[in-house]
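Section: Multi-chain targets

For targets with more than one molecule, the full set of components is provided together so that the structure can be written out for the assembly as a whole rather than chain by chain. Components appear in the order listed by the source. The example entry contains two components.
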Amino acid sequence: MAIKTILCIEDDRFIGEMYVRSLKKAGYEVDWMVDGNDGLIAARNKSYDVILLDVMLPERRGTEILEALRGGKKDLIPNSKVVILTNFDQNDESRLALQHNAQAYLIKAEITPKKLLSLIKQLDSDDS
Amino acid sequence: MAIDKPPQLVKDYWPQYRRRSLFFVVCMQIIATLVIVIALMLAEVVEPTNSIFWIIMTAIGATAVGINILVFSVLTEPLQMLSHALAHAAGESTITTPPNPNTRRYEKSGFKPLLQTIYELGGSQPNAPSESHTKGDLAFETILGTSSTGIVFLKEGNVIYANKSAPIHTDKDGSLQLDIITDVDQTIDEWIAECDEHAVNATKTWRRVANKLVGEDERKIYDMTASYQKGSEVEVVLALVERTDEYLPEDNDLDFISFAAHELRGPITVIRGYLDTLGDELSDRFANDEQELFNRLVVSANRLSSYVNNILNAAKYDRRHLTVHLHEESMGIMYDAIKDDMQLRAIAQNRLLAVSLPSDLPTVAADRSAIGEVMGNLIDNAIKYSNDGGSVSVSAQVVQNSVEVSVADQGIGMPSNVVSNLFHKFYRSHRSRETVAGTGIGLYICKAIVESHGGTISVKSVEGEGSTFSFTLPIYATVAEKLKAGDNTTEGLIRHHDGWIKNHGSMRG
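Its structure, encoded as tokens over all components, is:
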């Protein structure tokens, strides 16, 4: 399955715009949500190939969104890959808790748009 | 018999009591024997001139004295043991070993609870001054007890005395434990072990040692000096000068900055992100020195990001929250992750960075992200502290069960008195304060990370000629079994150099 659609849930306007710009330029269809509630609704309404999820979000935290989508008995986003992008250095415990429901956990300050694109290509090739 | 003075110490009571009692027993026996002799003679049962009679009576007297002494010893044994136990519980130094309540004989006779009660009562008040001290002891107690310097006496690794200012606690068995975290440098135990082997007299000072981790209540920070004297009654004396007021503000600053650092990462993300993007998009349009200036922007942004990581790691390490996840890694591949950044930093400051990592090096057990930070810090330091146009060389070789990586520069070097403090938190040499910007936590965190891997970090330096920093990492094959058995690997988890990515072995490299 080739990755085509991406949902970006990111409240920092500059960071969000930066990622969206590069992803669109690379040919992906990108929807961008700035708060946690809208992000959760978008993820429920449409099946995305990749969800880029910030942790510190207004309204609803990234951890809560992930819990709502994947914490129950049924995985509500079975066809999506989740990439956690955060600048908040969590302790190992919460990091490992997120790991269960995500494909990657990355520090935003270390991930330039170029690296993000290569990561998404990587996720794509791992699947095929 | 000389008249004994009243006992001053608990331990003095028993020998005195025993002496007096034995004297009494022997006298009574002699009197009893004499009474019998006189009675027999008065009754004219025997002739006073009969030598056999005297021999028999002397033998009876001597045997009776012996039996009485034996009976006395058996009957008063509990009293003797209780005295020894009391002297021990009172904290007096004695040559006798305190009676062991777990001896089978004591268990059978029911004596065990008595001894235990004494030890428990003694243990609950380890510092209560005994009322039966000599004047010398009282003066000693008064001086040490009121001193603001913590004083601790150690013998065979155990605390045998501590004054009120010393950071100690009593554990469940009633023994005193020192509350000092010295693992950033050599630990006290390691130092004592080293002294036991190599020294007769030795002293060592630890700076900035704390009783608790950063963030815990009632944290105090000390400068601690230890004196070792082989074979002395008090083998090790520790003097702890509390410097909390001086050191704590810096620790609190670091704590505050680590919170702020998360905020700093937002703008850094945008700066690095767009520099990366624009570097590609604008590369055709750069003229003259614009590319070089642009590279300086990239280098500065990357450095800023590394500094933020150092601060966050140091704050995590101080709270013992820094964990490394060890996996089989190749030195070459780990370096590749930071290669572009390092080359750019070298070029931007007109240094030649020569890296030669042999392709046949064995794999090591390492946390890729953490070792990337160690190499980044060492190479960045070498660039900063070398001269314009100078070269920095990175090499690696196998040393016993480890791979040793060395970063050498031909820069300003350091005098030897600076070297021993280099890996301490916030340490900056006099010269580096004047010439190069920095926080003094880069090498501190390098040491913490390398030692968390079971490796060591060291430096050789000649002033004016340059420095070589080396660190070792265990060869993977030598620790593979241990890693598999322990929890150092996290299932299906491979650390990417910026975080982790799940189940993607191909992300390596």
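Residues 124-132, 489-509 of chain B have pLDDT under 50 and may be disordered.
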